[in-house]
Every structure is written in structure tokens, then in C-alpha cells.
Amino acid sequence: MRTQKEIRQIYRQQIELAIAGIRKTRWLIIAATTCIFLSIFLFISAIAFEGWVPWVLVIVAVILFFLAKTAREGLYERLEQEFKEDVVCEVVRAINPEFQFLTNDRVEPDLYRAAKLFPSTYDLYLGDYLVLGQIGRIPFAFSDLYTELKGATTYRGLFFTSNFGRIQDGDTLVVPKDYFSTLQSRYAMQQSELKPIKMDSPQFDSAFSVYGTSPEAAQSAFTPAITEAILDIHTRFGRPLRLSLIGSNVYCAIPTEKMLFQPNIRGLKFRDVEEMFALFNLLEFIITQLDQNTALWTEE
């Protein structure tokens, strides 16, 4: 597990260099945005005067607006691609150079539904990239995902899945407190076999709710070390993590207000990179702890 000092050094030596590589596109977007505002100002100024000259300026302003708007949209698409290929890829490589980073790919929708952490239906399912790798002997995949149902956002954030190749005794869900507070979600929970489970940690129970088919399996899976690590991330970054153990799979959803590595004109802040390292350290810790917990699993 890297220290904050080591992460900052990686950020300065690798990530900032990658960000500098897309600086030209960022400045072109700023220039196009400036032209858009300039055309609007020119249009408003021109219609305030009479005569044929102002109308020429109106036409020029309209043409400039649409040219700048079209250029900005194209440049932003280019920035998104460059950002994924150069910056996000560099962050993933810094975490572990053996991980595979695939642009324009995503975790399969079937895995998203199987996690039992979201509504089972959606109208829109988008993924920004796909990272594949192994933690010890356990393969995993994660993506930034965005889903919608009837025009409303149902999930935006990081989604992680791994397969242990072994079956655990019972299904378990860990979600933020009051996550199933709506009438619809309460009804769905009542119709399922998952029942509320109280953990041994009052601090954990105050922040998260645990549901499962087997209290013994839930207690065995979410040991004090794991619940403490989840609470630490929750406290440090305010992320309301959701986890589930279903069959031989472990799923983790980390909601964000925007896609975790959404490109912006300012680049990528150190705290974004630090959070990515911290989140992956948490996932690595959970997977390692669960894998070593032989009492939890039976051979598949």
C-alpha cells in the first residue's frame, strides 16, 4: 500500500506529465468557448443599433457562434479520448503496470444486474472504460458506469466485480444507511430472502445497513478488519460504498457525482488520483481478506 508521499511523487512524475500532453486540446477548447461568448456579445451589441452594418455583424455573430460551438463539441470528444488513453491509462498503470486498460469498453450489464445493488431495469447503460487484472489469484474488472431509468439517473460511479471460483454460504449486501428507504425498494427487499443483519460494530451499523440470507455468512465475510477499512474510506472521502457477495462473485459500487475520471479544462487534481489509489487499496484489501477466509467458501 503506497503512502501519500509516494502517491504525490507518482502524480508529479507521471500523471502531471500525461496531463501536459493534452494541454493543446484543452487550450483549443478554451479558445472555442471564448469565441462562443464573443459571438453572443457581438450579437447583443449589434441588435442594439440601427442600419445595415449591425445586421452584417449579426450574421457574422451567428456564423461565429455555430462554428465555435461545432468546433468545441469536436474538441471535447477529442479531449475525452486523449484523457482516457493518456491520463486515466497512466493512473491505472501507476496503480499496477500489469493491469489491462481498455478504452470504449465496460463491465457487462449482466454483472451489473447480478449485483442486486441497483434497479433490475434501465433505459440507458453507459461505460467509460474497462480495467482488467488480478488481485492474487482472483480476476477482477471495473468500469465507470452511468445508468438511467425513465430519464432519471439510477447510478453514476465506479463498479467493481471479481469472481472467486468458490461459492459462499448465502448472499450478503452492504449498503448505506436507509438505502432501501423508498416504498418500492422496501417492498422489493421484503419479497426477497435478504433480511436485516446486525453487525458487531456500532459505528459500522450507524453508517451502513447489512442484509443477507445468512447472518453467520455475513458476520464471517465482513470481519472487523474489513468493516473498519470500509468506514475509513467512508470517513475520508464521504463515499457511500455498496458491496454485495452473491454466489462466487463480489461486487462493489462507489457512487460519484460525476464519472470518476471525467475530463475537465483544469486537468486532474491530486486528490482525484489519491482517492483512486485509496479506493483500489480498499478493494484489494477486501478481496485479499475474503480470499484468505477459508471458512467462508466451498469449492464451486
Describe the protein in words.
The protein is of the alpha+beta class and about 300 residues long. Helices cover about 50% and strands about 25% of the residues. The strands form two sheets. Strands 1, 2, 3, 4, 5, 7, 8, 9, 10 and 11 form a ten-stranded antiparallel beta sheet that branches. It starts with a helix and ends with a strand.
Can you give me a brief rundown of this structure?
With 300 residues, this protein is α+β, with helices and mostly antiparallel strands. It contains 9 helices and 12 strands.
How are the SSEs ordered, and which strands pair?
Blueprint: H1 4-20, H2 23-46, H3 52-95, E1 100-103, H4 109-114, E2 124-127, E3 129-135, E4 138-149, E5 152-163, E6 166-168, E7 172-176, H5 183-191, E8 195-197, H6 202-207, E9 208-212, H7 215-221, H8 224-237, E10 242-246, E11 249-255, H9 270-292, E12 297-299
Antiparallel strand pairs: 1-3, 2-4, 3-4, 4-5, 5-11, 6-12, 7-9, 7-10, 8-9, 10-11
Helix pairs in contact: 1-3, 1-9, 2-3, 8-9
